[in-house]
Amino acid sequence: CDHLQPTMWLGTEDGCIHVYNSSDNIRIKKNKIKIQHGSSVHSIIYLDNRVFVSLANGDISVYMRDSNGVWNTSQPYTVTVGSVANPVTRMVPISGKLWCSCHNTIKVLNISTLSVEHQFSGSGETQRSISCMAVSGLGVWLSLQHSAVIRLFHAASYDCLGEVNIAPAVTKMLASCDDIIRQHKAACLRVTSLLASQDLLWVGTSAGVILTMPLPHVSATTTKISQALQVTGRSKCVPHGHTGHVRFLTVVESTSQRGETKRFSHTKESTVHPRVLVISGGDGYEDFRSAGVSEVAGREDSTNHLLLWQT
Fold first, then answer.
1. What is the pLDDT of residues 227-265, one digit of tens each?
2. Which chain positions lie within coiled-coil regions (predicted)?
3. Count of beta carbons in the 10 Å neighbourhood of residue 4
């Protein structure tokens, strides 16, 4: 049935949620469902067969399916987690719970009872709000607004296990840039996106540099990361990034095409390894190996680019 097809939910600043079938071309096909809220949509998460929508008024609307598997979009359950002054701007699912960031505070939402069971400060810097979150195993990575520091928290104990400053690594990557550009980017440097994929934490920056860091092992009993957390420039291997901010990082997996594994049929067990692509979106394109000015510099600096990284 059409109503049981996979869907994509798209939230807008004017408080509207457009629901499309995943296979639809949204440029030419009208949305399947339109839901209007009174506040801007900040974040949408699908978890445990429900859709959680955080709004600018501090509420989280929870959409569920009815007994026939159809989304009940007319009567969502609403839970107040934040406030108008400090709404939920980011949500990440971890260990069957939902971590919600309200300014510089993390509120842990129990998705069974739909109540906040714990909250703690993501930083002692009360003037800085949490800007990005990423999850890997029992580790949750946080970055703060206008900051080049990343913090690692334990998903169960909520302890801060360590932190790392990305500024030295970014400065090193910008060594071949013009002095004025380098100084400007260093002065306003901040983390703009985080992604944990496979064994790496990917870090997008306002300078356009994309960094990676090996993910440390976090167990149920970990209280501190013993080894030093170190970031490296992806540009050392593939010297590409963005001229301006890295707007987002995401990962896409695709399995081998039909027939690709036939040549391995003589082995005891055929394993299909998914092809993993990390995608960065940002302003302009930059080759950090080149110190010179490109012929298209300025013309494409503000053009949106997608860069694909095969891992």
1. 777 777 554 444 788 989 999 999 998 775 544 444 444
2. none
3. 11
